[in-house]
Design brief:
By secondary structure, the chain is an alpha+beta fold. It has two domains: 471 residues, no CATH class; 156 residues, no CATH class. Helices cover 63% and strands 7% of the residues. Strands 2-6-5-7-9-8 form a six-stranded mixed β-sheet. Strands 1-4-3 form a three-stranded antiparallel β-sheet. Helix 3 packs parallel to helix 6 and helix 5 crosses helix 8. The radius of gyration is 27 Å and the shape is globular.
Length: 681
Amino acid sequence: MGSTSARMFTRVTAAPAIAISAWLLVAFPLLVAGVLTPLAGGLLGVPAVALGLLAAARLVPPAPGAEAGEDVPWWPLVLTVLIGVAFTAVQIAYHSEILVIRRDPASYAQFTFWIAEHGSLPIPQRRDLIAGDDPALVYDSLAYYEVGEVVWPQFLAGAPLVYTVGHWLGGMTGMLVTPPVVGGLGVVTFGGLAGRLVGVRWAPLAALVLAVCQTQQWVSRSTYSEPVAQVLLLGALALAFDALTRRTALGGRWGRAHALAGGAGLVFGLGLVVRIDALRDLLPLVGFVGLLLLARRGQALPLLAGLVLGAGYGFTAGYGLSRPYLEHLSDSLNPLLLISAGVVAAVALAVALLWRRGVPRTDRPRWLPAAGAAAVVVVMAVLALRPLVYTDYGHGAAATAMYIGQVQAFEGLPNDPDRTYYELSLYWVGWYVGLSTVLLATFGAAVLAHRILRRREPQWVLPALVLGWTVVTTLLRPAITPDHPWASRRLIVLVIPAFILFAVWFTAWLTRRLATEPAVDRRAVRTAAAGAAAVVGAAVMLVPTAITAWGVMTYRSDVGSVAAAQRLCRAIPDDASVLIVDSAYANFMQLVRGMCGVPTAALSSAVPQADAARVVEEIRERGRTPVLAAGAPEDLRPLVPEGATMTRPFDVHTEQDPSTLMEPPAGPWIFDDELWVAVVR
């Protein structure tokens, strides 16, 4: 019984990452070829996912302890899955309807809608159906780049490819409720990783803390990329753990461990199809491959090969389908690429120099493990004390500074628009999971560092490298607009899970130490002390996390936008060519072009009345119906010819995500948006 439950635990918790990876392996080439259709996706994607899950069922070993005869009960798996299901149900009930592009969710939603309906990129401008090459027209908008006679979406295709499945199954609503499902899979995947590294019985606690976390709920309610990236990277860590449970010799016979290592590397690499900044998170993996080579472990080459293949998909997604976006990021991306090349070269050189000696002994000199533990505490102390001695400035974008100035004015803060607030990044983590969790995680990471360097926790080497590196580099420079909950996006893929994981590990370690303390003779006292440690540890993680989440997680952002978008599209004739005459084009152009399926451009001229009249005539000459649109009636009214009627089909008055700078968000803001149109018959 224990063996069956142990196998089911690892299989079920590895399944989300394997299923998403199998789908991306098939769907991405279809998109590149321009043939991503429901039929092609079904014929190729369903078998690919089924084969991936079947392979996992055959290859993934049981949870740790089962092979040694330890009884692994069913309840941790059942509870972890129930937590994931409950999380998904709540997020579906509160899922957002963000379609108007203000920030990333609507950008991803419009990206998803386009490829789900058309199956190809780039997006044609169809300028020949508007006014040709009229110099008064522009075709780009927020998150959509005009390149020649086409438009390219800003972000990478990984998350939209996953959300496309929801659109195929349930239309626009299906697309919008897919992120909650993926977020729930992330909770289950994290529980699986915690069960492997901490112990199966601790998996439900880890999953519950993540599920309660406000940021996990928030990103899972909208079409963000983070839920997909989280499943892939946490799932890859779990698969790598499974691959390394058996020792294999370098150059030995191919077996299950090799296949799992290759799969883990592939899942890691596919993270780049979702988010280009995953490249930074993968750098420790290169060093770990070097350690495996020095240890003559057979998993080294399959892990490296899978990583290269997945990264090949990622760079194709970036430079093939999102090159304008990467060019926009060049100031930060190019140095990262150089650093990555340097890391690869340095690891290769180190492996060559140390090949005869093997893996360096980290338990010599004897003081090194203690120094490693102390270094963890020092780094966390520096991050905690940083706001007292340093204030970070410089967004690198005037628009970001302007927005931060507006939020400061709204909150009654001193006007300091260039401030990035990055020095508060560790406190951000404390907002969302509690400073008590941060302290527990610090103690856990320090003890783990000591044990790893003493070669007592080999299974923790890769997770500690990846999570520790990501925590430090992210907290040093989050590189994101610092209002919340927006900025917490940067933390949810690996940083917040890392703090929860280290905190749960420390609680488990302390509980076991107290339960087996030889200085206490009475077993009942040891049991009571251990139980108290477990209960207190769980409480100090869950209570602050739940308090922060409570205030902001009881609303639906942009609700009513789906119905408003449908009204807007019904108000626009099928043979229309749309001209947006004011700044609303930045937010609405791709919605009108993609969801309503009509050629759309914006007026960029300083003399809109004359140019609008000329463009209207040019549209008429092409046998199309001109439609003028604007976000404000006063911008549209002077341009509407006599006899045309103005209507307001897109009219939404609801709630949206808040923006805070010096405290965690505690409630929604008001959202009002509208688009006026005039059909010029």
